Amino acid sequence: MNPLASPRKFNRKSIWLLTGLLLLQASFMGAQETPAQQEAIDKILDSWEGPNKPSRETIAKLLKAWEGQPHKPDSELISKFLSHQPEFEHLISMIQSDRQITRIDDDWTLPSDPSSVGITNARVADYRVRFKQLGIARGFAADTKREEIRLLVSCQGTVVRGSSKSYVYLKSPPKELVTNLDALSKDDGTDGTWYRHIQGPWYLEFDRH
């Protein structure tokens, strides 16, 4: 499962923008545009076909939004979990009871109409309040069997190339564990998924794809 995947669709007029953003994303790390970034954004604007041409500010804002959230250190996440464990456990019980919805993000769900599987808008809103209280920026992702439940603390990048750091509730323990995820989250190297045990069925997970 790719937790970064979103059902948002882009029309043809936005393809130039999306392509440019993907190319710029890896290097656009600060508030100030570098000369290379300025040149690249100019090329996107110059190549835009059709009406509704975006402004430079719009492109910069979209790019910044797609950079996502910084990955917090293990120690901070584990401390948060241990000090709010009853709230985390209650959230898992909610997710387990709402098996037909597999994704609730900050502004979209899967299925896109939660009421089609018996989940009210009030219920979704309740999830989002709880996510915010626990520092879970991108909601949850899980299959209908609920064998793996991810509470996505941070996501960076896009469906094409990105990473995420999550609390994970697993029915079966992973085959391999690491003692620290911090170095992995700072490295742009090998793709993969790594786990650090917290306690019981709870783990931290770092995924890069």
Word description of this protein:
By secondary structure, this protein is of the alpha+beta class. The chain has 2 domains: 12-67; 74-208, no CATH class. The chain contains 7 helices and 7 strands, in the order H-H-H-H-H-E-E-H-E-E-E-H-E-E.
Q: Would you spell out the secondary-structure blueprint of this structure?
A:
Blueprint: H1 15-25, H2 35-47, H3 56-67, H4 74-83, H5 85-97, E1 103-104, E2 109-110, H6 121-134, E3 140-142, E4 148-157, E5 162-170, H7 182-186, E6 192-199, E7 202-208
Antiparallel strand pairs: 1-2, 1-3, 3-4, 4-5, 5-7, 6-7
Which features would summarize this protein structure in a list?
single chain; 209 residues; alpha+beta; seven-stranded antiparallel sheet; 7 helices; 7 strands; 37% helix
Low-confidence stretches: 5-16, 22-31
Strand order, biggest sheet? 2-1-3-4-5-7-6
Summarize the biggest pleated sheet: 7 strands, antiparallel
Chain oligomer state: single chain
Instruction: Please give the share of residues in helix.
Output: 25-40%
Strand residue percentage: 15-25%
* Class computed from helices, strands and strand pairing: alpha+beta
The best one-word shape is globular
Terminus-to-terminus distance: 11 Å
Domains (count) = 2
Order of helices and strands: HHHHHEEHEEEHEE
The DSSP helix count reads 7
Radius of gyration: 19 Å
Compact description:
The chain folds into 2 domains: 12-67; 74-208, no CATH class. With 209 residues, the chain is of the alpha+beta class.
